[in-house]
Amino acid sequence: MTEETMTKWRILILGGTGETGSWFARYFKRKGFDVAVWGPSGKVEVAERLGVRYAHDMMKEVEESDIVLISVLIEKTVEMIQTVAPRMHPGSLIMDVTSIKSGPVMAMKTYAPKGVEVLGTHPMFGPTMPSLFGQTIIFTPVEGKTGKWLPIIQSLFESDGAHIGILEAEEHDEMMAVVQALTHFAYIGIGATLKALDFDVQRSRKFMSPVYEIMIDFVGRILDQNPELYASIQKNPKASAVRQTYVAECMRLSEKADSGDLEGFKQIMRDAALHYGGTHEALERSDRVINTSIRERKEKKPDC
Amino acid sequence: MTEETMTKWRILILGGTGETGSWFARYFKRKGFDVAVWGPSGKVEVAERLGVRYAHDMMKEVEESDIVLISVLIEKTVEMIQTVAPRMHPGSLIMDVTSIKSGPVMAMKTYAPKGVEVLGTHPMFGPTMPSLFGQTIIFTPVEGKTGKWLPIIQSLFESDGAHIGILEAEEHDEMMAVVQALTHFAYIGIGATLKALDFDVQRSRKFMSPVYEIMIDFVGRILDQNPELYASIQKNPKASAVRQTYVAECMRLSEKADSGDLEGFKQIMRDAALHYGGTHEALERSDRVINTSIRERKEKKPDC
């Protein structure tokens, strides 16, 4: 290790009193960083609970930090970057942890002075996850503004078992419009449908298949979490077109089924299967997930 | 055991040369039944492969069987019942294994002569499942036409670890319009969307979250299987209204997101969470499923 990596780095987490920010405050503290947090509503007690410093003089802390990590609400992110980035010192790093990358990365690129590095970061997990093990984190680096810090942060996260993916900010948003926004949207749509139909979810569990059990638990999982996070993921600039395609495809399928054109319905399935590729491997993987779920169900209810 | 249960029962599986029918032929053969199969396309070689008799004289076999199990295509089921039920002898049982119950049960009730018992049966699993362990099977018995056989078939299936649910045929169809038809519909809609967007599924796996991984594998799982089965499940007479509600709810959510009404979006989520109930237990169960999936991913790719 070089002398520099031996130094205790100072990291300031803006929005560090929120759920995601607190998760990272705990993480970097465990890793031996000198952590300070600041939040727009001034919750000093959260810093005390986390055992880290509260940045009463936020701008002074910005100037003195090695890393400034932005974890405020997505709609405040660009404004926050605009306020703090110009005050950072050469050799330091600004990173964000929002689920949309094009806007924040453009802002960091624009407002970070020469010599300040930029790392768009998207941790693809919620603050309920106990560790980085097996989780995916995407970096959207900026050419010419990422040299020293990317490998440091990457090996830090990888040492805890995270899988790092690297994408351009635009491509990230396109991919996440499907990977996150569409996935959540379809599940939230099911949740809203169960309510609209006044469907008895609890009773249905007695008559469920394992595939349904897992799906309905995923609906519940999403509904149990902070709606703010899920709403912000839908703000992905590429998500609107994906949602509209989904609604259109659902209508097309629905029309085939309603008109009794089952051949048409099956043809949509066959075309989708061909495009998907590797459906059989997917079936085998899902068999394992289902079998685990079946075993757990058995262990919990030995009488059924 | 009484003398009667010691007797080797004769079961005829109509459609026994198809995938589901063959599954039951193997099952009942293992259980010591005298199994005969018949199929509309006369595939005698399937019977040979299964090691069971082929019913060349189908109507004679119907008359002599203790159980006639209908496993033909859903659109042929009522016609098949109409043809064979009147020829069955008192004390025998007619059962079907289609995923819709109101039509077939009504037909069995109408055409089975006095003394012939009726058992609507819905095995909620596909023919890729290796055993009944942990699977759900729903019975929709008919009052006054189910006495002797229901407990026999129920304890047979339960002895292999199946979970039996009992419902009225109408209620079954209402529940399955959500449990099966809506689940599949949402997933097939995602598959069709991936094709419409020309989305690279394989590449996206590098950047996925575990929730996405499981969901996308479930999409592949459904697309990998016989489209006939999935199309027939959408023919559930109650499914059309459910599909329409789903499309309407997706449109409502989409409008909220597109117009920037994130408060409206979050309110739909909160209402759905309240109606769902037990979201936190769902989150905990899904955490376990996700953790299994993460461990499997790690074991398969030790380098990432």
Task: Provide structural commentary.
2 copies of one chain form a homodimer. With about 300 residues, the first copy, chain A, is α/β, with parallel strands linked by helices. The first copy, chain A, folds into 2 domains: about 160 residues, Rossmann fold (3-Layer(aba) Sandwich), CATH 3.40.50; about 130 residues. Chain A has 14 helices and 8 strands. Chain A has an 8-stranded mixed beta sheet with strand order 3-2-1-4-5-6-7-8, sandwiched between helices. In chain A, helix 5 runs parallel beside helix 6. The mean pLDDT of chain A is about 90. The interface between A and B is large, with 113 and 113 residues.
- On the 0 to 100 scale, the average pLDDT of chain A is 92
Order of helices and strands of chain A: HEHEHEHEHEHEEHEHHHHHHH
List how many beta strands of chain A DSSP finds. Answer: 8
CATH superfamily of the largest domain in chain A: NAD(P)-binding Rossmann-like Domain
